Structures are given as structure tokens and as C-alpha cells.
Amino acid sequence: MDALRVSTIQPSHRLLDLELRTLWEFRELLGFLIWRDIKVRYRQTVVGILWFALQPILATIIFTLVFGRFARLPSQGIPYAVFAYAAVVPWHFFAQAVTRGVNSMIAERHLISKVFFPRLLLPVGVVVAGLVDFSVGFLVLGAMLAWYDIPLTASILLTPLFLLLAVATALAVVSWLAPLNVRYRDVSYTMPFLLQIWMFATPVAYSVELVPVRWRWLYGLNPMAGVVEGFRWAWLGTAPPTPSLLAASATGVVILLVIGVIIFHRMERTFADAI
Predict the structure, then answer these.
(1) What are the φ/ψ torsions at residue 18 (nearest 5 degrees)?
(2) For the packed helices 223-236 and 80-102, what is the interaxial angle rounded to 10 degrees?
(3) Read out DSSP for 231-266?
(4) Is residue 262 part of a domain?
(5) 201-223 residues labelled b (16+ CB within 10 A) or e (exposed)
(6) Whole-number Å distance between alpha carbons of 65 and 62
(7) Residue 1 included in any domain
């Protein structure tokens, strides 16, 4: 008989080891997790994937009545409904990705306790699967632009960059909170409250022009501020986000994501016992 091949699985002891090679080796599993999440999420629903379009539409109607008609907040010359919806869609993607990503460890505890795989694949799969819902929301935005006769500009080509920033922001938050949620289930209960506060700290219902210019770099430490303003500029032709705001957002995301992944890898070795 041929000698049996024995593989020893050990956690890395290097501080800055992000284990990207291991993640690449399990890329097929990541694809399966993404496809499974897409199929299961709207199974046995009447509306199906259109739920992602309905939720931003309802939020936009509320914002239009409260902030557009009653408060009369400025919208940079754009009809307020379109102005708000262009921000609600990326924000809704981010909020849903964070909520499902934080709970992904608990939802898949039967896998974590039985078989080895990079645990980071679970929140990554949830976040990436949300891009399908995100695309449905932007189909509605395209219809609104045609209805209000708002022309597209060349800046729309930069949409993938702002989308990448939104995905990275979601992954950064999840990489911090998902491991904590394994040990302290209070995290999942506080998420709706935290996301609600975060939304009002992000220029979703209002324009960043209301913030003094000298403070916008500090405001940009909220990465979703750069995402929202970037999407509005790319699709509506509003004032572009300031370089200081974008630089602060991108720098903050990179730092949070790298540190978050390191923390995630340090804590994942105890997931099977704690979950």
C-alpha cells in the first residue's frame, strides 16, 4: 500500500500574514458559497430579488417626503427623489452586507464545527453575493434617470472604483464584528442601531455640501461618505467629492481592512469551540 499522505493544519504565527494563498486555494468553495447564498436568499418568495429594489424605493419615498418636501434640503439641482435614491442603493447594499456578514459565522456554525476551510470565506461570500441585489437596484436608477431626462457623463466609468470602496468597507466592518459576534451575541442585537446612526452620519438624505469644506477631510473618515458622494457624481453629474474626502475614506478602509483581517485570523482558531 502506498504511504498515506498526512496534512497538518496549523495557524500561522506571523503577525501580518493575511493568508491570501489559502483563500486562493479555496476559491472554488467561495464560488459555491456565493451561488448558494443567491439561490437560497429569495427561495419561496413571491417578489424574489425585486425585494432589493423595493426597499430602497420605499426608503427614497420617505426621504423625499421628510427631507425633500418638508425640510427642503438642497439636492444640487437634481430632483430630490433621484438624488436620494442614488445614495440609498449603495448604502442599502452596505447595510445588508454588514448585517448578513456579521451573522454569517453563527448561521454556518454546523460547517465551522465539522470541516476545515478559511472561515473568512463565509463573510466574503455573503458580501459578494449582495452585488447581485445591488445591480437590480441600479437598474431602477437607470429608469429614473431616463424618466427625469438626466444625461449620463463619462464619470460613470468610475462606478466600479466606488463600488470596490463599498465592498472593502463592508468587509472591513465584518472582519472586526463577525469574530466578536461569535463570542458576544450582543453584537448582532446592536447592529440595527449602529447602522441607523451610521446612515445619518453619511450624506444619504442630504448633500455633503452642508458640511464646511475645511472639515470634509474629517468627514471622509467615514468611508461611506466617499462612496455615496462618488456614486452621485458618477451617475448624476453632481459636484465631485473632494480629493481630501476620497483620500481619507480610502486610507481609512485599507487600514481597517488589514487590521480586521489580522484580528479575524487570530480569533478564528477558537470559533469551533466558542460557537
Answers:
(1) -85, -5
(2) 140
(3) HHHHHH--PPPPHHHHHHHHHHHHHHHHHHHHHHHH
(4) yes
(5) ebbbbbbbeebeeeebbebbebb
(6) 5
(7) no
Contact at 8 Å (CB) between 185 and 208? no
Written as one letter, the residue type at 206 is Y
Indicate whether 245 belongs to any domain: yes
Nearest to 150 by CA among 57, 69, 77, 62: 77
Q: Shortest CA distance to 201 belongs to which of 219, 183, 187, 216?
A: 219
pLDDT digits (tens, 9 = 90+) for 101-151: 999 888 777 777 777 777 888 888 899 888 888 888 888 898 999 999 998
Query: Which positions ≥6 away from 107 have C-beta within 8 Å?
Result: none
- Give the integer Cα–Cα distance in Å for 75 and 83: 6
Residues in the chain where the model's pLDDT stays below 50: 1, 15-16
- Give Cα 115 to chain centroid, integer Å: 27
| 134 located within any domain | yes
CA distance 227 to 161: 9
In this structure, what DSSP letter does residue 71 have?
S
Q: Which residues constitute the domain of residue 97?
A: 20-274
Rounded Cα distance between 169 and 163, Å, is 10
Cβ partners under 8 Å of residue 126, min gap 6: 37, 97, 100, 101, 104, 174
Task: Name the amino acid, one letter, at 42.
Answer: Y
Q: What DSSP state is assigned to residue 223?
A: H
pTM over 0.70: yes
